[in-house]
Amino acid sequence: MTQFDPEKIRRDFPILHQRVHDQPLVYLDSAATTQKPQMVIDAVDRYYCLDNSNVHRAAHALADRATTAFEHARRRVATFINSPKSEQVIWTRGTTESINLVASAYGRIALQAGDKILVSTLEHHSNIVPWQMIAAERGAHVVAIPIDTRGDLDLDAYQALLDERVKIVAVNHVSNALGTVNPVKLMAQYAHSAGAKIVVDGAQAIAHFSVDVQDLGCDFYAFSGHKAFGPTGIGVLWGREALLEQMPPYQGGGEMIETVSFAGTTFNHLPYKFEAGTPDIAGAIGMAAALDYLENIDRAALQAHENNLLKTAILLGEEHGLQRVCAPQQAVGVYSFLMPGAHPADVGTLLDQQGVAVRTGHHCAQPLMAHLGIPGTVRASLSIYNNLDDLHRLFAAIAKVKTFLLQ
Ligand code: PMP
Nearest 5°: CA angle at 171, between 379 and 381? Predict the structure, then answer.
């Protein structure tokens, strides 16, 4: 493990060293997607230059190499999240597809008319809409777990909602809109005592702190490569083996079968049962390189660095008269704010003109925005390559935006 050195880390990310609108880029949109270190770019490049071939039908050397690297990547993910077996790691296109897979395949066997799915008010649309779709199909209901004024889940209300009709709880580990870290380990215990299963959307957690699926005690855990320094188009669904075994396939096609005839088809074993078609081989290899990169950093020091940046952003925001949207007890990576008197979209555009990339709008969390009674927020999201300079640039730009918009 190398010592945590933010300046060295910055040098590992080539994209950061460019000018945007004639200003050095300040990238504060990592909650949307993280940038990629050279090591990941090289791994994908090397694969396409040297090894590209389809996997699992290894009649030649390239196919053998591609298969070995692809399956090594699966084992890499398994170790990273402490999965008991690598067969429990299913490749998907990302968090969205992982949740759709659980909703469709597990929802179909677990839900009866009148059953309930609890989904938190903090969720991204990708952890709401798939549940609404399967609920409509099965005659079940999606019920929201409320939040308090700080932006934390109301755990008393959650416990009260957990009756015998609840079959599934779906919650994010970290909210992309507010940065709230949810107590998913405790929530899993509550869900299990009520006889429900818990699906955790880890899209915003995986790059910020270590995730141990066994320690969390969750039933499913979903995340995307691109939110953790890997490529887009690749993601993971982790599931308990017994549940994955019970679930029917999600999509039909090549790779997910054992035998096919017009009389009927038998399905492949885990994980291939859920991996119809040619997978994103380069994506999986790139994702494994990203996890190697991340694991080579002192993660405790990294977390302290990110926490320090967030605290500084909150303080500077107060000094500049910004209104932080909620103040969760524990938050990572996200500083969501409003500039009183200014529309978030205008603030975002004027920041961009000064080379500062933030995201504005509802952050795919419209029910949360409706609950807060706001159209959206300005979100500055932080990652391993951000530093205090980035924050000073952000707030210098904010001061200019204020002069421009509010005078
Ligand atoms: N959940 C959360 C909390 C997210 O932040 C995102 C991405 N913004 C998603 C799910 C969806 O991830 P993807 O688009 O990679 O499938």
Answer: 15
Catalytic, 364? Answer yes
Is 5 a residue whose pLDDT tops 90?
no
* DSSP per residue, 344-367: HHHHHHHHHTTTEE-EEE-TT-HH
pLDDT tens-digit map of 288-299: 999 999 999 999
Q: What single-letter amino acid sits at 75?
A: R
Structural contact between residues 378 and 339, judged by C-beta atoms closer than 8 angstroms? yes
Provide DSSP, 84-138. Answer: S-GGGEEEESSHHHHHHHIIIIIHHHH--TT-EEEEETT--GGGTHHHHHHHHHH
Q: Which atom of ligand 1 is nearest to the CA of 98?
A: 16
Task: With CA atoms as reference, report the closest residue to 361 among 29, 33, 95, 35.
Answer: 29
Q: Give me ligand 1 centre to Cα 203, in Å.
A: 5
CA nearest neighbour of 86 among 302, 257, 238, 259 = 238
- As beta bridge partners, residue 20 has 23
pLDDT for 386:
98
Phi, psi for 337 (deg, rounded to 5):
-145, 165
Computed on alpha carbons and rounded to an integer, the radius of gyration of the chain in Å comes to 22
Helix, strand counts (H, E) of the chain: 15, 17
Which of 120, 126, 226, 379 most suits a substitution to test ligand 1, by most atoms within 8 Å of the C-beta? 126
> What residue owns the CA closest to ligand 1's atom 6?
203
- Say if residues 221 and 213 touch (Cβ distance below 8 Å): yes
Six-digit token string for 136: 């409509």
> pLDDT (tens digit, 9 = 90+) per residue, 93-127?
999 999 999 999 999 999 999 999 999 999 999 99
* Residue-range domains of the chain with CATH: 6-30+298-406 (3.90.1150.10), 42-295 (3.40.640.10)
Establish whether residue 360 lines the binding site of ligand 1, counting it when its CB lies within 6 angstroms of any ligand atom.
no
How far apart CA 372 and CA 365 sit, in angstroms, is 11
Q: Do residues 91 and 101 touch, judged by C-beta distance below 8 A?
A: no
Cα 15 to averaged position of ligand 1 atoms, centre (Å): 22
